[in-house]
């Protein structure tokens, strides 16, 4: 009836609202179906039909997204190129779970950090109790009108009781004496804890935000590369654009790695302080990820400019292709392993600790047995080292698995020694 009687504009509007109602009502319909006496939740068709479609949460996007069951994670990418988590509809956030993301987003927007800042960087006026920030060098403070009370920043006593005998304008021996007697310990301890908490949060938030801005810049650079630079590079280097896909793949990998690296800082913030072994291992993995990503980013950004600005085809362009493609592959593998390790709760730390304890207990079994074990271990290590050289005369780096020429002593990708 709509197709027969309505105008083209109304038909398009009806179709648009019909699809929207289907997507938005599917959960309601599923809830009604669950109330039917003979309905089984195990029915795969109904699960697929009513639970696997959602609107893309990107601003201005009109696409609905189908979720592929069995994909292994909740990260999905819309046709508009926006990636989000199917479970919570926040932006894609592997390796962090949805609960951690909710806490982190709430913390970033909550007033609690404002209160922490006030507590750490201000003191209440002894008379009117309003918080006051110290904005100049000396300890002589004057509250704002209408209070106008003058007091000492350190001991909070009236300034009329201060002078040369109490330490002058830049010190207060009353405060030091009272601190030694324990009078100010509780308030100072509370202020110090708030300051440490704020500094810790600021450390992780700044790096989270920096990687977010770096990712946005990388997305803009990718767009520029696809629309302008690849065509120019194709003309200069006399290469078809189909042969330059390795550059686009490198930039896509940079964008993805910036996203992962950003969320590792939220992961690190909520990692328990008491688990020192896991924290040290996490910081090592994170540092290696940052340095590897910087190498890839520098190669794709700065080294590529040499070939873009060249006057003609470069002889070593194929070497650059091999290097950038190799860095892309190594970085992808490392970040995939990093995501898996963090999603597993850094379980390798517990495994290594158990093996270490087991090895220590075995080494106490007797001197002859210990020497025998050591000899076998040396033989095994030597034979393992020989196996890293393949038939083509290349050796595989233990750190990044890149195949280097047999004559090289330093890995061309990660700069680690052989």
Automatic annotation (TrEMBL):
Top-level division of the source organism's lineage: Eukaryota
Name the UniProt record assigns to this protein: Uncharacterized protein
Taxonomic lineage from the root: Eukaryota, Viridiplantae, Streptophyta, Embryophyta, Tracheophyta
């Amino acid at each position: 009836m709509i197709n027969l009687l309505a105008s083209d504009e109304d038909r398009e509007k009806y179709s648009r609202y019909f699809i929207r109602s289907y997507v938005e009502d599917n959960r309601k319909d599923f809830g009604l179906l669950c109330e039917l006496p003979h309905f089984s939740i195990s029915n795969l068709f109904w699960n697929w039909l009513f639970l696997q479609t959602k609107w893309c949460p990107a601003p201005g996007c009109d696409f609905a997204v189908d979720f592929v069951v069995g994909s292994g994670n909740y990260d999905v990418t819309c046709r508009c190129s926006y990636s989000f988590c199917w479970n919570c509809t926040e932006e894609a956030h592997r390796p962090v779970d949805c609960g951690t993301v909710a806490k982190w987003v709430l913390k970033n927007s909550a007033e609690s950090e404002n209160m922490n800042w006030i507590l750490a960087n201000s003191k209440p006026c002894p008379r009117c109790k309003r918080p006051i920030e110290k904005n100049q060098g000396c300890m002589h403070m004057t509250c704002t009108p209408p209070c106008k009370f003058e007091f000492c920043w350190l001991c909070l006593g009236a300034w009329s009781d201060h002078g040369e005998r109490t330490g002058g304008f830049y010190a207060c021996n009353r405060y030091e004496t009272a601190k030694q007697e324990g009078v100010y310990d509780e308030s100072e301890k509370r202020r110090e804890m708030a300051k440490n908490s704020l500094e810790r949060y600021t450390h992780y938030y700044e790096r989270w935000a920096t990687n977010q801005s770096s990712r946005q810049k990388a997305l803009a650079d990718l767009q520029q590369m696809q629309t302008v630079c690849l065509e120019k590079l194709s003309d200069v280097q006399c290469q078809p654009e189909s042969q330059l896909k390795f550059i686009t793949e490198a930039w896509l990998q940079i964008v993805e790695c910036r996203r992962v690296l950003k969320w590792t800082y939220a992961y690190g913030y909520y990692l328990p302080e008491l688990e020192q072994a896991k924290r040290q291992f996490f910081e090592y993995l994170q540092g290696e990820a940052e340095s590897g990503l910087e190498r890839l980013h520098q190669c794709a950004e700065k080294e590529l400019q040499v070939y873009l600005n060249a006057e003609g085809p470069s002889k070593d362009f194929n070497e650059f292709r091999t290097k950038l493609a190799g860095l892309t592959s190594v970085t992808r593998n490392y970040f995939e392993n990093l995501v898996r390790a963090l999603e597993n709760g850094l379980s390798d730390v517990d495994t290594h600790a158990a093996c270490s304890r087991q090895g220590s207990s075995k080494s106490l079994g007797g001197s002859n047995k210990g020497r025998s074990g050591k000899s076998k271990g040396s033989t095994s290590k030597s034979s393992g080292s020989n196996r890293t050289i393949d038939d083509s005369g290349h050796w595989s780096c233990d750190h990044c698995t890149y195949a280097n020429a047999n004559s090289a002593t330093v890995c061309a990708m990660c700069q680690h020694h052989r």
